[in-house]
Amino acid sequence: RSSDLAVIKFLFLKKLSPKEIHAEMTDVLGPNAVSYNIIEKWVAKFKCGRRSTEDEPRSGRPSTSVTEDNVAKVEALVHSDRRVTALRSRDTWIRSEEH
After folding, report:
1. pTM listed for this prediction
2. Burial, 58: exposed, middle or buried (Cβ in 10 Å; 0-12, 13-18, 19+)?
3. pLDDT in tens for each of the 99 residues of the chain?
4. What gap in Å lies between CA 83 and CA 78, rounded to an integer?
5. Using CB atoms within 10 A of its CB, is residue 25 exposed (0-12), middle (13-18) or buried (19+)?
């Protein structure tokens, strides 16, 4: 993803239009190319002065719940009862997070 955005930015800096950028990327990447709508969105951001090709942080839940603390809690739950199921461990985890 970040490499695609770097290419979009590079081609934008070479003064290519979103349509031309999409054509270039489609020629090289085929069906794996970034959609025209995404290219158009990022070109608009670069026109407004954006320099970074990284997404802005978003509010709300983190993108992943895999942390050392979470892994340790799940391991402790599994070790306490070998018959624990994924669904039960999820439900136990949700209840423990609510308190």
Report:
1. 0.56
2. exposed
3. 788 999 999 999 999 999 999 999 999 999 999 999 999 999 999 999 888 877 666 676 665 666 777 677 767 766 776 665 555 555 555 555 554
4. 8
5. buried
